[in-house]
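Hello Y.,

Per our agreement to keep a running log of every chain we model this quarter, I'm adding this entry. I've kept the format consistent with earlier entries: sequence first, then predicted structure.
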Amino acid sequence: MDRVDMHVHTTASDGAMSPRDVTSLAAMQGLKAIALTDRDTMAGIPEAGEAGALLGVTIIPGIEISSDYKGRAVEILGYFLDSEDRKLLDYEAWVLERRRERLMKMAEKLRHKGFDVSTEAEHPGVPDRSDLAGQLVELGVADSVREAFRRYLGEGRSCYVPRERIPFADAAKLIRDCGGAAVLAHPLQYGFPGSELDALVKTAAAEKFSGMEILYPGYTRSDQDKLYSLAEKYMLLPTGGSGFRGGDRQDRLGEPQVPAYMLIMLAQSQYR
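Predicted structure for the entry above:
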C-alpha cells in the first residue's frame, strides 16, 4: 500500500526538524507524499519542494490555520495552496504581528516576576510561547518546557495571554478563495461531547469543507468509526496524518498509516 502523511510540521512553525530534514525522513520511511501543514505559515514549502524533487517525495503545499469556533481554538487544514498567494501572505503577516504582540505581553509579565527574558531572539518560524518557555529553562526557572507552561505560560497561568484567532468561517473562506481544500483537523482533540461534535462537523460542511481528519495518533477504531459515520453523514472526505513535530515528542512521521487514495480523493475533489 502506498502511504502518505497529510499533516506535518517543521521548524517553519512549531516543529523540531527543518523542511528538508522532514522530507528526507519521509523518503527513508517510504512515504510517497507528505503535506507540509505548518501552523499559520507556508514558509517551509519551497525548501521542502526542492528536497522532495531530489528524493522522490511529493510535497503537498498546505497550512494549518488556528481559528476561533464559538470561543474555542479549532484547527483547519488547507491543501493545494500557492505559498505566494497574496491573500495567504497577508494572513501570515497578520498572524505574525499578533503573535509578536502577544509574546511581548507575556514577556512583560515574566519580567515583573523578576525573570530576565527577551523577545528579540531570532526564531526560524512563527514565534510562540515555546520561545519564552525555552528561556525559562535556560534561566533555571523551570526544569523543562512542559514545566514552564504548567507553572507560568499555560492557559489560566499568571503569565498567559489569550491569542487572537481568525473566525472559523473566515479561515474556511480564505482557503477556498485561494483555491484550496479545507479539512477539519483532529476533530476529537477539542473535547466536544456528541451533539457539539456533530454541530462542529455540520458547520464545517456548511462552510464547504472538503474533508475531515479521521486517521490521527491515538484515535481508536471506535473513534475512527464515529468519525467515518459523521463524515458520511455530512459528505466529507476522510483524511489522515500524524501531526508530526519531532523533537522530544513521541509522534512518528507516517503514523498512523494513511493510504494514498485519501490524498488522491481530496485532490480530485478540487476539480468537481
